[in-house]
Amino acid sequence: MIIKEKKIPRLFFKIGWFFISWLVARRFNKLQIHPIDIAPNSSYLLLCNHFSFWDGFLAAYLVKHSINKAQRVNVINFMSVKKQMQMNPWLRYTGSFSVSPGKTSSGKSVAYASEKLNTPGNVLVLYPQGNLESCHVREIAMKDGINALIPQIKGNCQIIWSSNLLEYFEGLKPSIDFHLLDCGTNHSFNFENLTEKVNQHHRLALKKQIRFTEEKL
Description:
Elements: H1 10-27, E1 31-34, E2 43-48, H2 55-70, E3 75-81, H3 82-87, E4 96-99, H4 106-116, E5 122-126, H5 146-149, E6 157-167, E7 175-185, H6 191-209
Parallel strand pairs: 1-7, 2-5, 2-6, 3-4, 3-5
Antiparallel strand pairs: 6-7
Helix pairs in contact: 1-2
């Protein structure tokens, strides 16, 4: 059975979103978004690398300061592993709903996720690596679960990847760079092409983070 998110009033959603943005801005030194063009009248599938406890907060900050500037965001949802949601019931109040990879119920979770993306202005955040890894890995190993999700989406959905990279350099607090990539829409989706584009983009993003040393990635 799917553990679904708790629906909260729009006012509470906006207050929570404002609080998260404030918290992230306080916790990090600099937050630099390397923007892309956001498609109008669309839903948005936001794919990010998965490297820390802060990932959900960072995604919410990114949505507020990028997608929401181009189109009013209705809701943000996160697809989370069911065991994590059972251990952390508060995730239901952040827009999270469950998935159980490898089990028959995962099909229902995928169908539920695709329904969310049928509505323009809705955002679904996914971490296609499926596991926590360093943000500095050279290769993003993407699980193929989105192969089942994206073909079920009706209407227009923009697929966005963000390589979120953390550095300290001279700061006492870390800084985050959000390197965005427009991966097209659900209508042009191809898993192999997406994986290749994401990895090329991620390696280039890593190279941009290096200040002085020339390194072959």
